[in-house]
Specification:
This protein is mostly beta strands. The chain is built from one helix and 28 strands.
Length: 319
Amino acid sequence: MTRILAFCILAFLAPLASAASLLVLNKEDATLSIFDAATGQPRNANIPTGNGPHEVEVSGDGSLAFVSNYGTAQAPGTSLSVIDLRTGKERARVDLGELRRPHGLAVQGQSVYFSAENAQHVARYDAMKNRVDWRFSTDQQGTHMVLLARDGTVITANIQSDNVSFITPKGETGTQVLVATGKGPEGMDLTPDGRQLWTANSAGGSISIVDVATKKLVKTFDVGTKRSNRLKFTPDGAVALVSDLTSGELLIVDARTQAVKSRLRIGGGASGILVAPDGSRAYVAAASEGRVVIVDLKKWEVAGEIRTGRGPDGMAWVP
């Protein structure tokens, strides 16, 4: 059975460019793994990070990976790991001091915006200057995920405050507009045209749509999730993918009709989602099972899996 599964993975991935790499964080092992995207084979499986790494993003030139070290239940994390992807080693571990529990990340060149959940902040780390050069207090509960709009607006999801922040950086601070959503907004993504923000409401079983230009709530609709975790669009914007931690499913939501087209069984702790740039497949972490499930986005079916370390979650793509 193992050989058959491996063959299926290789057959599915073989046509892809062999140079591309898939980065996967293993929360319980405190490591970053690098896999060959064409074969699913590990290139480097044990790059150390700080405790409880949750999210990873790659610098604009593809040379660095930024990792948010969220910490454990007992000990909040206070660092970012900067991984040199050319050497496969941690180049720096950035001490964030009072900016505890860093989580969401959004990259701009060789700078990375990050949330600091316990500190109710969003901040920016400049890798060239090796310092945090901007910070902003959201004054909201559960500031968790981070996105960047095309105009440079920083967007955060504030889980316990049931809203999202639209932050316009100005000098060393900025201004904020809050938009109420459904209950517990967590996973979120911008439509490919940048016009709408969709949030998966982890405690509400729903998705909220916000107009980016007006910063107004358009609608909230039910999708029947028990504990949604992440939301990602396909490159063509036709479909939103939503992972459900509790049910272990991946929901396929039609972006035009807002109807749930299908539910695929992923496995325990369905969480992080990464969509390949060509839109052919998605990678979905089954965190409690130590694997990443490969979903064929043309056939809408599970096509294979990659065995990882313990607690896979955040992922990133390196061309």
